[in-house]
Amino acid sequence: MLPDLYPQIVTIINPDGDSVDEWGQPIKGEEVIFEGLECNVAPAGGDEVRNGSTSYGLHTHMITIPGLYDIQAGWFADVEDDGKYAILLSEQDSQRSQTRIRAEGREI
Description:
mainly beta
């Protein structure tokens, strides 16, 4: 695609899915839905949450992927060299050429 517009790589993971081992036996746990997709990650907003003696940063990001993908809330976006984000919402642009993911990351 265009490396300047989509400089990062993302893997979409279903945390409640099943995968298979090398013998074809099912394994409960994470299931890779899409792997190695080009993307662009941009910050969208943030907040600080305090819980007793602990506080953490809550950051939302917009992850843009070229193409149309069926991505569900509750899955995770694992961006290479950037971390794992919880997917809150997935939508397609009006031109039906991109998938936009609103995702949440946390820093302790």
